[in-house]
Each structure stands twice: as structure tokens, then as C-alpha cells.
Amino acid sequence: MTNRTVVVGLAATFVGLTALLVVAGVVVNPLLLAVAVPFGAAAYLMWFHASGRLRERVRREADRLGPTERERAEQRARAAENRRDTYRTAGVSGSRSASGTTGARGGTRGRNRTAAGDARDRAPSTHGMSEREAYATLDLDPSADGETVRSTYRERAKRLHPDGEDGDEEAFKELNRAYEVLTD
């Protein structure tokens, strides 16, 4: 038995109960008319669902409201990729979009690297550490996404924090510099 058949059967049952309650309300007690109203409403909603009109209405409303959050995220990712391509073809370097990173939002870190991107890895950043060295400090692959970088950093920071039992102040500072390089 399909879902539609079950809903149609329930709707028919509720229509029958509504009719019975209306007749009983007229003949026996008018209070039963108040009980018939919710049964009638339920029967109508079940019929609306079984006929497929509910799905059509929801789809129309969704189209009217616009894209979902997932679709907006995909649009933002495409726009970021277009910006990176534009910077690459123009030969502009040093911009956040041109480096192939998205920072704390995660996503495309390390993907689509070019020869210019590899040269930036070798060049020292403002923190005195290249991206390649930062990935090595965190023991991560350069293709790791932002969420992996963040979770690895947090795990190691807990272990290396100077107030912890395995605390090492210099290693903790190095870890922080690496994280800053990868999230800038």
C-alpha cells in the first residue's frame, strides 16, 4: 500500500467522522458541531496532501523565497573561484582571494595551486613562516581544508599550552604562528 493510498483512506475516514459528528450535532447536541470542525480541517489537509497540491504549493513558495542556504554557499564558492581565476590571469599576487584560501570559513585551502602559489609558499610571510612551513608545523598536508587546520591546531594547542602538563612555551608560540599564517 502506498503512502498516497493511506492518506486518501485516512482522509475518507475523517470525512465520514465529520459527517457523522455534524448529523449528531444537529440531532443530539450542538456541542458536537464544535468537535466536527477539527475533524473537517484534518480531512481537508489530508486530501490537500494526497492530491499533490500541498507539494506544489510548497515548491512554489520555495521558488518565491529564493535559494536555500546550501545553494547560496555554492554560489559564494563559485564567486570566490571566479575571483581567484581573475587574480591569477591578471598576475596579481598577495591578495587573499589569489592565494586559494578562504580562512576560517574553510573550504578551498590548498586547492588549485599554481606556480605563483608555490612561490608564495617559499616566500616568507609577515610572520616569518611560509605556508609550507606552517603546514609542516601542524603536520598537515597542504590540501587540508580550513576545518582540519582548525581542529588540528586546537588539539595541539591544548597539549602544548604552557599551563598544561606537557606545556612548551616555544612550541606553543610556533604553533600559533603557523595557525596565523594559515588563517590569514
Automatic annotation (TrEMBL):
<dbReference type="Pfam" id="PF00226">
    <property type="entry name" value="DnaJ"/>
</dbReference>
<keyword id="KW-0812">Transmembrane</keyword>
<feature type="domain" description="J">
    <location>
        <begin position="133"/>
        <end position="184"/>
    </location>
</feature>
<dbReference type="InterPro" id="IPR001623">
    <property type="entry name" value="DnaJ_domain"/>
</dbReference>
<feature type="region of interest" description="Disordered">
    <location>
        <begin position="63"/>
        <end position="147"/>
    </location>
</feature>
<keyword id="KW-0472">Membrane</keyword>
<feature type="transmembrane region" description="Helical">
    <location>
        <begin position="7"/>
        <end position="25"/>
    </location>
</feature>
<dbReference type="GO" id="GO:0005737">
    <property type="term" value="C:cytoplasm"/>
</dbReference>
<feature type="transmembrane region" description="Helical">
    <location>
        <begin position="31"/>
        <end position="50"/>
    </location>
</feature>
<feature type="compositionally biased region" description="Low complexity">
    <location>
        <begin position="88"/>
        <end position="102"/>
    </location>
</feature>
<protein>
    <submittedName>
        <fullName>DnaJ domain-containing protein</fullName>
    </submittedName>
</protein>
<feature type="compositionally biased region" description="Basic and acidic residues">
    <location>
        <begin position="63"/>
        <end position="87"/>
    </location>
</feature>
<keyword id="KW-1133">Transmembrane helix</keyword>
<dbReference type="InterPro" id="IPR036869">
    <property type="entry name" value="J_dom_sf"/>
</dbReference>
<feature type="compositionally biased region" description="Basic and acidic residues">
    <location>
        <begin position="118"/>
        <end position="134"/>
    </location>
</feature>
<dbReference type="GO" id="GO:0042026">
    <property type="term" value="P:protein refolding"/>
</dbReference>
<dbReference type="GO" id="GO:0051082">
    <property type="term" value="F:unfolded protein binding"/>
</dbReference>
